[in-house]
Every structure is written in C-alpha cells, then in structure tokens.
Amino acid sequence: MRKNLGVQPALFPMPVTIVAAYDENGVVCALNAAWAQICDSDKIALFIDADHKTTANIMQTKAFTVSIADVANMEVADFFGIASGNKMPDKFERTGYHAEKSEFVNAPIITEFPVTLECELAEVVDTENLHAVVGKIVNVSADEKVIGDKDKIDPAKVNALVFDQFRSGYYSIGEKVGQAWNAGKGLMQKG
Predict the structure, then answer these.
(1) pTM for the model
(2) What is the enclosing helix (H) or strand (E) of 60?
(3) Residues 6-21: pLDDT tens digits?
(4) What letter does residue 145 receive in the DSSP assignment?
(5) How many whole angstroms separate alpha carbon 140 and alpha carbon 131?
(6) What is the DSSP letter of 127?
(7) Pick from 120, 114, 121: which is nearest to 17 by CA?
(8) How far apart are the C-alpha atoms of 121 and 99, rounded to whole Å?
(9) Contact 110/72 with Cβ under 8 angstroms?
C-alpha cells in the first residue's frame, strides 16, 4: 500500500558537486551544490540561488568549474555547503585544499576532487519558478587514478557522493548492476 507524503523534493540520488569560481581579486570561492544536472551533451545546469557568493563570482568572471565530490573529501564538501562565502571570506583557505587555474576557463580546479568539469557561462535562466546557471562544458579533467579503459572515467574508482534529500544524508555510489541501453532489450522482443 502506498502512503501520500505531501510535497517534498523527493528525487534520489542527487549528485554532490562543488562549484568553484574566482572573485574579483582572484580568490577561490566554492559551493556545495546538490541541485546540478547535465542538460545537454556539453552543458550543465546549476540550480543555485543568485545570492550565493559563488554565483556572484560566476556572473563576474563568466566561468566556473564543477567537481564531483567523493567519499574521501566528504568533510570539506559538506563544509562548502554549510559555510557561506558571503560571511566567511577565507572559506576556501580554511580547508587547506589546493586550487590551480584551469587551462581552458578563468576558474579554479580544486585538485583534491577527482573529476572536474570546466565551464564557460552560457546563460542564466531566471523565471518565477526557476533560477539556473547554465555552463558550457569546455573540458573535463580527471585524476589519472579514476580513469579506466579508453580514457573514460570509472565511476567505481571515483567513489562519488550522492545526496539523500529524504534524510539529509550522503551515500556513495555502489557497484554497477547493469548496462544502459541493454538491460531492457529483452522487453523489445515481446509482441
């Protein structure tokens, strides 16, 4: 039997991503953004508020990076979500983490995170029901330890974090259980 639970953001899993941009002085600001999604083969949409320091930096520099948070870096990833760059100017420095400038966009790559999408600002969608920062992915860089066959990222090696909106928990990505565009082929034969 099903039970009605009311209105909730009941979608699981949500990727834990770290969005980073430089401020006007070249200082790194980073934000934990679980509400992010690929929206085209070369674009990502970040559903982040306009009042975040990182959002303001993106508007100024027209560039940002999106890193996949992993289990090994959960503490810092969570910190990036609970500390505000508007109230804590040394937020990034407090972590002791390192950043290097992307070769492709004017934005920092946080080297401790295993996979980073390097993006140019494509557009901002701001309507009554939606505020999204859309980035054009111009490069993806990854630590060699998470790259598998044919220069593809191996999700099992990334050990990515996902956010549980039901109970505000973090989970790690588990084992592969099937092959996309193949697992349902048997149903194609039914007539």
Answers:
(1) 0.93
(2) helix 53-61
(3) 998 888 888 999 999 9
(4) G
(5) 24
(6) -
(7) 114
(8) 20
(9) no
